[in-house]
Amino acid sequence: MFVQVVRGVVADPAATFARLDDWLERLAPGAAGWLGTTAGVTADGELVSFVRFASAADARRSSDRVEQGLWWAGSVLLFTGDVVFDNYDDVELVGDGGADGAGTVEVLLGRTRRGRSAQELGARLAALTADPATGAIGGLLGHHDDGQFTHALWFCRSVSARAEPVLDPRSLRAGRLVGVDVRVLRLQSLWFGSPERAGRPA
User: Fold this and answer.
1) The domain spanning residue 24 has which CATH number?
2) How far is CA 16 from CA 102, 171, 199, in A?
3) What pLDDT sits at residue 111?
4) Mean pLDDT of 131-151
């Protein structure tokens, strides 16, 4: 699986989700290899979108379409500043991966410490999904050889009311797995797109 993570601050989450609805209706049917998208916005307006493809080649073909370029030219105007793209060829699923029935998604961004592997981090985070008390449904972990990673966990709707995120970077720092610059984002306004919603088989 290939995952592209798109991040940036948006001024109007509702308009952003409407733009994604437009992509789902007009462009998704022609996006061969597209497996689904989860997008969400934090309380302070930061958007994170996980766009999943069967392969990097499928993602490139989708991106190279003329209609995709035109759609993005209009979409980028919704952001108030720079947009960050992280592309991951090396992706591990946690549990069953994401779920469209989730109520919230927590995102962990950072870099593993030198000498520590993404596999160690993945094992630590996978333990969360094994504990029913956390409400974790599943997730994914994308990482690069230099240690940079993006991890996301999907949680059931009952977790949305919790005041604090389940992912705690302090415990990961204490275990000397990650650096001091690790961030946790909590996405509570969510948008889901799937091939089924676009009217074609996965």
Assistant:
1) 3.30.70.100
2) 19, 34, 21
3) 83
4) 86
